[in-house]
Amino acid sequence: MDLNSSLDSPVINDPVPSNKSRLGMNSNLRAYSQQDSPLSQVKYSLSNSRKSMGGLDDVRSNGWLDAMKASSPPRKKLPKGSNAQVASIDYDIEDYYSWMLQYPSALDSFDKIIELAEDKKIAIFLDYDGTLSPIVDDPDCAFMSESMRKTVRSVAKYFPTAIISGRNRDKVFDLVKLTELYYAGSHGMDIIGPVSENLSKNHPNSVKSTDEQGKEITLFQPASEFLPMIDEVFRTLIETTKDIEGAKVENHKFCVSVHYRNVEESNWITIGQLVHDTLKNYPRLRSTHGRKVLEVRPGIDWNKGKAVEFLLESLGLTDRNDVLPIYIGDDKTDEDAFKVLRENNRGCGILVSSVRKESSAFYSLQDPNEVMKFLQLLVNWKRQHEKNQGKN
To answer: Which end of the chain is more exposed for a tag (fewer CB within 10 A), N or C?
Structure first.
């Protein structure tokens, strides 16, 4: 990958293409103004819904509350020092290993994965939170270790590597700090990738430009027209959730995340209702569930799976039998990528989880530490492979 430039000049700012707005925003959406905004109606309707608990039936009846609870179920709490606690842990481990029969460890199955990669070009796609960094109570403190950063840099030296995250693309780069990678933020709605002459034909929202090092890149933002709506929803949810202790709302540029990890479970239904009522005023937006987070995003046919396909296309690795994409992720939003790779055995999906989950992945890893071990195995295998080829 030809992105070995200095970290002092990160490949992260949106380039400014000629003859277009900075974000390539469609002219019809530029006309979207505060005068047309339903923001005042949103605040009014939400203030009323918070006064009356009757409206919370919406969240119960449409399954939102069940989905919120299922996204990250709490472990059963047992009395300290009791044998029952030990028995419960043993039972969880037994249940997990039973689950691993369906989703074998990628570490234990490494030789099998390498067999699939024989005579093929490997492309690596990584989620960030829960994959390269541990899940923490404060998303702003989800730092990857220096050893993980060193490992990912080594991976990018040998394989085309991209990080596809729900976070703002700029924020992901600030956390990773590696210019050797490609980045896709907002679940793939904000991508910087390599230049491909065919992209502009197949994807009208692709803009060919240069980064701060003068290298040619492709900026792809298929949902740029939604930026004014996303900003309004962010400001609305900041206002309406401010009295809920532990609630955190983040603007990821093309989506809004409402975290309830630190919110008392008795208030989850209120969080869900506030998001639900906000979306009533924005029919072109939709909500999805992640690990103790509700996310509001544009209602377009785009997700992490589409982002993988776009990056493969930009790398010139589409419709080839000599390519093995590997995607590693831990959350529900990563399932779209797993499904893409499962179709016709196009690639290898690896789910990061220490608990039983249904998934479209083929393999599993328990935590970021195991992710790092797996990536190190890949690097060592590639080095040895190239060394052996040099001898022949």
So the answer is: C
Strand ranges in 176-242 using DSSP code E only, listed in sequence order = 182-185, 190-193, 206-210, 216-220
Beta bridge partners of 297: 286
CA distance 329 to 335: 8
Given a cut of 50, whether residue 131 has pLDDT beyond it is yes
Pick from 346, 340, 308: nearest CA to 220: 308
Question: How many Cα neighbours within 13 Å face the side chain of 28?
Answer: 0
> For position 297, what pLDDT does the model report?
94
Task: Determine the 3-state secondary structure of 318 from DSSP.
Answer: coil
> Per the structure block, which two tokens stand in for 325?
């994409």
Please tell me the least confidently modeled range out of 298-307, 323-332, 382-391: 382-391
What the block records as the tokens of 8 is 């002092």
Q: What is the mean pLDDT of the chain?
A: 81
User: Shortest CA distance to 361 belongs to which of 21, 104, 28?
Assistant: 104
Nearest one of 98, 176, 167, 100 to 133, comparing CA atoms: 176
Quote the tokens at residue 318.
Answer: 């589409």
Q: Tell me the C-alpha distance between 280 and 389, whole Å.
A: 60
What is the Cα–Cα distance from 4 to 1, expressed in whole angstroms? 8
The DSSP output letter for 182 is E
How many Cβ atoms sit within 10 Å of the Cβ of residue 366?
A: 15
Asked whether residue 83 carries a pLDDT value surpassing 90, the answer given is no
- Residue 4: pLDDT band (50, 70, 90) is very low
pLDDT in tens, 95-116: 888 999 999 999 999 999 999 9
Cα separations in angstroms, 202 against 29, 93, 150, 174: 22, 47, 35, 30
Q: What is the pTM of this model?
A: 0.77
